[in-house]
Amino acid sequence: MTHFPQHLLAFFAVVVTLCLTSCEDQNAHQETVDSAKVDLVPSNILMDTDISFMDSLYTKAKVHAHRARVYAERQETLLDSAVFVRFFSKEGVLSATLKCDNVKVDNRTNNMYATGHVVVDSPQSATHVETNSMMWDNARSKLYSNEYVRISKPNEMIEGGVGFESDLSMTNYRIFKVSGVKQQ
User: Which of 22, 65, 77, 168 pairs with 5 at a CA distance of 20 to 30 A?
Assistant: First the structure.
């Protein structure tokens, strides 16, 4: 019978213990992954991306964002880092532009929810709108906000109102609670 020196037996015992411990730790970590948080990880990340929203016959909107995160499970796309949207009429004429910090796109409806210093400009009506959030209803081609809005035109400034609804050219808009109008 061969005898191993005591120091070799002790060394092998420590190595076997470390291997078993590290295997147990890896298995324990794998079991604690929360499957509910899987949808927090985007299925795709796109950098400096352009997205077009089309109707069957024309381009309704073109969006540029420095980063887009697509969440396939939730059917939504999050755009951030200097989002710029151009809206077009059925004739292909630029109706309005929208600049904001972030946009959430509902991939089922293509509705967009803009947040973070939202600025909308219409070259057709020379109307400028500022607010904290704005929604674009894709099916109706309308802009909405439930927030405080500030609207300026060449001869008029509406300093504060809560609630806003408009067509894309901002020629037909409504403010629900106007707090002040200045004629210039």
Answer: 22
* Radius of gyration of the CA atoms of the chain, in A: 28
The rounded distance, in Å, linking the Cα atoms of 60 and 82 is 20
Q: What is the pTM of this model?
A: 0.75
- How far is the C-alpha of 91 from the C-alpha of 114, rounded, in Å? 25
How remote is the C-alpha of 29 from its chain's centroid? 32
- b/e burial code for range 97-122 (CB count within 10 A of at least 16 → b): ebebebbbbeeeebbbbbbeebebeb
**Using one digit for the tens of pLDDT, what is the confidence trace for 41-57?**
899 999 999 999 998 88
CA atoms within 13 A on the CB side of 136: 30
